[in-house]
Amino acid sequence: MIRYTQDRMIVLGMVPVRRDMFPPEPSIALKDRVVKRFEEMAESNGDIRLVTIDAVVDGGMLWDLRDVGKVVDLFRAEKVDAIVFPHCNFGQEEVVAKTAAEIGKPVLIWGPRDPSPETDQSGKTGPRDFDTQCGMFATSRALRRYHVPFTYIENCWLDSQVLDRGFEEFLRVASVVKAFRGMRIGQIGVRPRQFLSVKINESELLSKFGIEIVPIWPEEVKRTVEKLRRNMPLSPEGCELPMGQPPLPSGEGMLPDPRIANIVKEIEEAVDWSSIGHEAVEKMAYLEAAIMDLASVNRCQAVAVDCWGFSQDSYGIPSCFVLAELFDRGLPAACETDIHAAVGAVLLQAAARYATPAFIADVTIRHPEDDNAELLWHCGPFAKSLVRKGTVPAVRECKGMYEIEGGPLTVVRFDQDDGNYMLLADEGEGTEGPKTTGNYVWFKVKNWVKWEKKLMYGPYIHHVSGIHGSFAKVLKEACKYLGPVAHDSVEPVEEM
Predict the structure, then answer these.
(1) Cα–Cα distances in Å, from 321 out to 226, 281, 282, 330?
(2) In terms of C-beta density within 10 A (0-12 exposed, 13-18 middle, 19 or more buried), how is residue 114 classed?
(3) Euclidean distance between CA atoms 17 and 135, whole angstroms
């Protein structure tokens, strides 16, 4: 499958720390085992690059304040996304706090459990060489004094699965934070006139979070489609407006971009397209490729599309299934120009470390028999790869017609009210329910009335972003690092 390329790599700074009042030999030996363990975990999780401090600090362990600047310079040069501070004995809370404050990225604190104090044959107890847990407490207080948010993993044995789970969850947190900071969303067209609910403050998103909205005019999409018909490259400047540019050649005798045939083949092999015909499938393929190309050249992590107008007017087809295809190819695509929904979808896919596509749904009607279930529905942005097992996704009038798989689901809404931003993140699961048209899943929770009140008074709207998997805890933790974004949930979400 043709994929949209997202930056999935997490660059992780490794800073083992020690305290010089403890004997150095035991902590040095422990450090080597700790680093090896993290290297193994990084390899098993994939798309992780570890940056150690061996090249700038003698022995590869930080304890001397004079070395903090060297570590900071290294990590800035390497563009680390997060930092891990393994305590190889008590540690040194001041170097941790000052390094973390300078870098300003997610921080993970952990130390292995101490062995039992040694005793000789007479029963005399020898000195303790590590006291890692005690040092973790000191470090946490120092980080608080420097106003540095942090995550920690329970003080556990080096080979414990607790460490594996905690490390994996922290990677998801780091992935969410990386995706959020400096996010660029391509906006194709304007919002539907009556949709006051999807209004945003573009300037505020930029000033508070560095999230940039990139206008992409429908005329740019049209010109890009015409270039695809002629297999011509896009402008490297990222703007494909017709005005001020030379007219395109007639196209006679020119072959289209070879990706178009591949996309058509992929669609026709995966869905029931019998009601729309080959020509409509080809139109959808051109739209997909054009939007992906414009998103790529403008370095966008998602798009929000005026699905009500531009594609219907320009190509005679709605863009509904095109949005589903973009999700399947790794590019979140919000309908009805809902920028905040696009943000939510980006965060969900980052939390899942891009293992599965998100979707965007209307919160529509209650289950006729189960008071705690709700229909999550739309006519487009549900990837066909999510279709319920044993069924074939269908496309009617260029709109998706299929139920997606159930199982654990995480649902979010990123939104704002009078300059206050919040991230609603909670979980439920797919359940059985009546068949309907469009794309859908019946969503079951503990208490739907509480969900309804949360959406009404949030204030939130009828659009949510969803994904398969349980990531509410990860998203709550990520809110520590997102700046002025308050975590919100219907049910209490446990701490990491």
Answers:
(1) 21, 10, 12, 14
(2) middle
(3) 10
Least confident of 22-36, 298-312, 477-491: 298-312
Q: Angle between the 258-270 and 277-297 helix axes, to the nearest 10 degrees?
A: 120
Residue whose C-alpha is closest to residue 323's, from 279, 288, 271: 288
Mean pLDDT taken over the chain: 94
Structure tokens at 407: 């199982």
Q: What span, in angstroms and rounded, lies between the C-alpha atoms of 234 and 322?
A: 20
Does pLDDT of 119 surpass 60? no
Cα–Cα distance between 314 and 293 in angstroms, integer?
18
Residue 146: strand, helix, or coil: coil
β-bridge mates for residue 83, sequence order:
13, 107
Identify the burial level of 220 via C-beta atoms within 10 angstroms of its C-beta, where 0-12 means exposed, 13-18 middle and 19 or more buried: buried
Side-chain half-sphere of 446: how many Cα atoms within 13 Å?
7
- H-run or E-run covering 430: strand 420-431
Distance CA 380, CA 344 (A): 17
CA-to-CA distance for 205 and 227, rounded, in angstroms?
33
User: How many CA atoms lie within 13 Å of 276's alpha carbon, on the beta-carbon side?
Assistant: 25
Strands 212-216 and 302-305: unpaired
Dump pLDDT digits (tens) for 120-148: 566 566 677 899 999 999 999 999 999 99
Q: Which amino acid would we find at residue 52?
A: T
Q: Extract long-range pairs of 229-233: CB within 8 Å, 24+ residues apart.
A: 229/254, 229/256, 229/257, 229/286, 230/254, 230/256, 231/255, 231/256, 231/257, 231/258
Q: Please name the fold of domain 10-118+127-180.
A: Rossmann fold (3.40.50)
Domain ranges of the chain: 10-118+127-180, 184-488
Question: Can you name the residues that pair with 387 across neighbouring β-strands?
Answer: 404
In angstroms, the CA 61 to CA 15 distance is 7
Name the pTM for this structure: 0.95
C-alpha neighbours within 13 Å on the C-beta side of residue 162? 13
Phi and psi, residue 377, nearest 5°: -140, 155
Distance of alpha carbon 339 from alpha carbon 187, whole angstroms: 8
Q: What's the N-to-C CA distance of the chain in angstroms?
A: 35
Round to whole Å and give the CA distance between 389 and 396. 20
Q: Which of 179, 173, 171, 177 is nearest to 43 (CA)?
A: 171
For 246, other C-beta atoms within 10 Å of its C-beta total 6
- Please state whether 111 falls in left (phi above 0), alpha (psi between -120 and 50) or beta: beta
